[in-house]
Amino acid sequence: MRTFLVLCSLLTSTALHAQGPARARDQVTRLREAEGILERLVESYAVSGMEAPVRSLVEQQLPEGVRRQTDTAGNLWVTLGRGDPVVVFIAHLDEVGFRVAHIRDDGSLDLVPVGGLFPSLWEAKPALVHTGRGTVPGVFMPRDAAAADSQRTPKQLRADVGTISRQATEALGIRVGNTLTMPKEYVRLANSRATGRSLDDRVGSTAQLLALRRLARSTVRHTVIFVWSVREEIGLEGAEAVANALGARTRRVHAIDTFVSADSPVEPRNFAVAPLGQGAVARALDNSSVTNPAHVDTLMTLAGQRRIPLQVGTTNGGNDGSVFAAYGVPDVPIGWPLRYSHSPVETLDLRDLLSLSDLITAVAEQW
Question: Which whole number is the average pLDDT over 279-305?
């Protein structure tokens, strides 16, 4: 493994820094294509359980002629090739946010979080309530001074939509069960960096779309299934439906998701360091799965053959592929390094998105 890591480091340096003019122009073109997809997906709202808007955008970006279906759980499938083995790639559509738990007599909303997040990053910010009739603006209410002095994290967030009674709030179309987010925007930073809320996992979703566009379908010698899953942030529910549908037929699953990296000016760099801009990450270990070292080596070999930058790392969090373990299916997750996970300012390097899509293509064509 150490030999592979050294080789990967050398390949990464070569791939990113020793580019001729033609290759540099090609990378600029590819970055523009990637941004065109990613920006649209990021600026769509889809708290867990309400993924239809972003699923529709993904469908619009699919290449013509691919077999697609939406299952009863809400997952979007694209199937290529025929016969065994069956290999699955899966990225999730949903994002973290809040749900309305109760409407108070004064018109304000009691909220519960949907997915793992830091409530203190949301308070005193603009809010959006997503209703059956459209989006209603509001604010996440700040705490009073006494509460703010006593604790860093609020016990419960509330939202104010400007009304003064329950009836007035309900007249806006707001109901218990509606989801809340905050306004968001995809923003390009210096060089190849970008920021926006819900990069997790719109980047993985974009990488799968880019791979499908470039995949030489004639080279697919067995069944390859691309899935955009629902309700990952609240317990991998969509992925579980996929695993149950396929059962033991699946030879291998690749969860395409975030690698929560400590490559940040504000975090200790003693665990989960995968520098932004140095390529996709083979997730060797996380809180939900351990990847077979032989499978990690295969990823490294493929990346080396195609001169794709690839890192290896361990991190926190889970991934959709882990629910396939009940059927004895190996989980070989592939991530992309992310700063400031589950915050309003998630940050990536777009070169890692290209690396990730290239690796997905290589695995689908050769493994």
Answer: 94
